Each structure stands twice: as C-alpha cells, then as structure tokens.
Structure to design on (394 residues):
C-alpha cells in the first residue's frame, strides 16, 4: 500500500486529507465476496488465540438492521462473560444509532463511551475505533469523526478469555441483527491515512500490527479463517459443529473499491526558472504504477507519484495528469495546469513593486533577462510588454 502518514498527536489525523475521485471511470471495484449475517438472537463467531493489546484498532464493515432485544449488540469482544478487556458494539440509544466501546468492563478502571453519527440502519458503513493509551478515536468510512482523551491501562483478558465476533460480554449474550464483513483487529492505533487506504479492499497477508483479519469468504462449512497469517482462526457458533448459534453466509454488498485517492495534482502559476512539483496520492493493491502525461502525451521516464519540473520555461506550460494502474483497474487524476507568471520578475511568488524595480534595474543595465518580448535584444518594447503583464497580474 502507498500512503501519506503525517499525523496530529492524539487524533491520528492526516493533514491535509483530500478525498477526491479520479476523472476516469475505468477503475474497477474489487469484490468483498461473502459476509456473515447475525440473527439478533444467539449468533456469533468464536476465534482462537490471544488478543491482548495495550493499544488497538478495531474495524469492520457493518450493516445494522436492528440493535437486538436489549437495544445493543456486539461487533467484537475480547474477554469473558463476567469481564472483558475491550468490546465494540452497536447501541440504539433513544433510537439514535451509536457505537459502544468498553475497556476493562467489569474491572477496576473501566471505561465506556458512546459515539453517534457512525452509521445508519440498513446501510453498509465502514467503522474503525483506535486507542493508543491516551486517546480513543472514531472513524467512519476512513474519515475521522471524533476523539476522546482517556487514560486507561487495558488489563489482560485472563484465563478463559475468548475473542468473539457478533457478541458483547455483559453477563449475558447481546447479539444485534446485523451483517459484518472484513473484521480486523490490530495491536496498534492506526492513523486516519492508514485506515482510509485499506477501507475499500480485502486485507490479506501480513501487515505490521495486524493481529487478525476475517473476510468471511468461505463458501460453506464452520470455519472463519484468519487471513493475516497469524492463525487466529474462528468457527461459526460456539463449538465448530453446526448449531443454532451459527451466523448465515451471505453475499457481501459492502462497497469495495480499487483505489482511494487522498491528493490530486494542483494547478500552479510560477515564475520562469522556478521548480514545480506535482503530486498525486493514491492507495490501492500493489503494485501501483504511474505514468505522467503532458497535454495528453506520456512523459518519458516520469513514472513516480511525484513529477518535478526543475527549471520552468514556456515549453513546460500546459496540462498535466497522471494515469495510475493497479491489478484491479486504472484511473486518471484530475488535470493540473502549469503556467508561467513572467511579471513575477524577482520570483518571489507574488507581484509587487519589487518586481517592477527588479525589471527596471535589469532594463537599464541592458541585461538580457529584460528581453521580455523575446526578440533577442532589450528595447522599449520590452518595457511596454512588462508593464502590460504587470498590470494584468497572474
């Protein structure tokens, strides 16, 4: 994956985060395949392995139909019925859809919080919650929503702990009527950029900090395989044998995408001789390849995320874009226009009397840089041309 990883302390925010669509319509969406549907009564997935984490990211695609008989139900839980290290669920407080996060439930130093605005009923939404030991951060569809300052040390879950999907440990099973896909558990607090760059694609294989990933793409049987390679596989229900507590396998309708774009190349007007940097930021399945174009024609050797014009001259003026290709499709960036502001004579980046004074000094000295009309010599026509350009502005 490719991403920009500048963050603001506490929020995990990417600044600036520009989410923009490419101009091409041929970026093929990937397919999330299958999902699991939980009945709101007794369904869950039971996973093996240790999920203790001092910091974490919990994320999933969710489609909530109803909050369950108690008005709340689980997405994921790690712990025991009498207590839990951490839990994430849905909550229908006064009819308002909310996420419920609990830390150290049933233990000293427990913490619980609700976050509204994270999803609506009967609509696929990607949700993520991170905790870094100081801040809980909420993300919807890869975008930062809210942050809470919390100082809680998460205690290990203890003997008999289980990691379950679709249940909350509140002393009694709490199951919502919902579908889940691409459930992922990390032992690090991921940034907004990192979350955003994996929202739209299946996650397979090893990634730093990834404890487990469940895509639920098995066509049948009792297994829910962990695609991270860490072996924390799950079984449908409680025992791995067919039973009433098995969630149902359904086709996933979560909106998978090929690319996520976080920055587009920006049009620039700069002085002649300056350095121009055009950047395009996208993330998608590796390998990503780039081809920059000038007025629709490929620029030989310009195959990186960034295109640089080291010394801007009139032959560089025009329209630039970049075509990015991944195994799942191709897209084209929005166009950026590069133009020269020749009246910015001192190359300060803006027009003022210093440009006028600099031109006059060059003109009076007969310096060839004052050949403003490009005739090859300096005369009053250059002075007139400069004054007209200066008054017009850039």
């Amino acid at each position: 994956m490719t991403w920009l990883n500048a963050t603001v302390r506490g929020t995990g925010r990417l600044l600036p985060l520009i989410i923009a669509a490419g101009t091409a319509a041929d970026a093929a969406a990937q397919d999330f395949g299958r999902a699991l549907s939980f009945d709101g009564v007794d369904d869950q997935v039971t996973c093996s392995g240790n999920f203790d984490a001092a910091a974490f990211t919990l994320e999933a695609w969710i489609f909530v139909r109803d909050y369950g008989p108690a008005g709340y139900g689980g997405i994921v839980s790690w712990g025991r019925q009498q207590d839990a290290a951490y839990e994430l669920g849905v909550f229908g407080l006064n009819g308002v859809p909310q996420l419920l996060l609990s830390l150290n439930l049933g233990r000293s130093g427990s913490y619980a919080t609700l976050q509204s605005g994270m999803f609506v009923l009967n609509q696929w939404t990607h949700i993520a919650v991170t905790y870094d030991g100081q801040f809980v951060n909420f993300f919807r569809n890869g975008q930062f929503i809210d942050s809470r300052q919390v100082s809680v040390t998460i205690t290990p879950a203890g003997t008999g702990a289980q990691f379950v999907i679709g249940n909350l440990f509140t002393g009694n099973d709490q199951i919502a009527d919902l579908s889940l896909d691409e459930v992922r558990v990390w032992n690090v607090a991921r940034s907004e950029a990192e979350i955003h760059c994996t929202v739209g694609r299946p996650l397979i294989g090893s990634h730093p900090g990834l404890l487990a990933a469940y895509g639920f793409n098995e066509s049948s049987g009792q297994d829910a395989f962990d695609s991270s390679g860490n072996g924390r596989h799950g079984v449908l229900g409680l025992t791995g044998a067919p039973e009433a507590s098995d969630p149902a396998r359904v086709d996933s309708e979560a909106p998978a995408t090929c690319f996520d774009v976080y920055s587009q190349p920006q049009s620039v007007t700069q002085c002649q001789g300056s350095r121009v940097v055009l950047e395009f930021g996208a993330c998608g399945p590796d390998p990503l390849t780039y081809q920059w174009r000038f007025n629709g024609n490929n620029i030989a050797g310009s195959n990186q995320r960034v295109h640089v014009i080291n010394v801007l001259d009139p032959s560089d003026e025009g329209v630039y874009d970049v075509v990015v290709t991944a195994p799942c499709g191709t897209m084209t960036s929005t166009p950026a226009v590069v133009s020269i502001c020749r009246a910015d004579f001192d190359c300060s980046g803006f027009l003022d009397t210093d440009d006028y004074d600099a031109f006059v000094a060059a003109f009076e000295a007969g310096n060839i840089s004052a050949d403003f009309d490009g005739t090859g010599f300096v005369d009053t026509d250059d002075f007139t041309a400069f004054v007209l350009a200066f008054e017009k502005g850039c």
Notes: The domain at 32-251 is CATH 2.60.120.200 (Jelly Rolls).
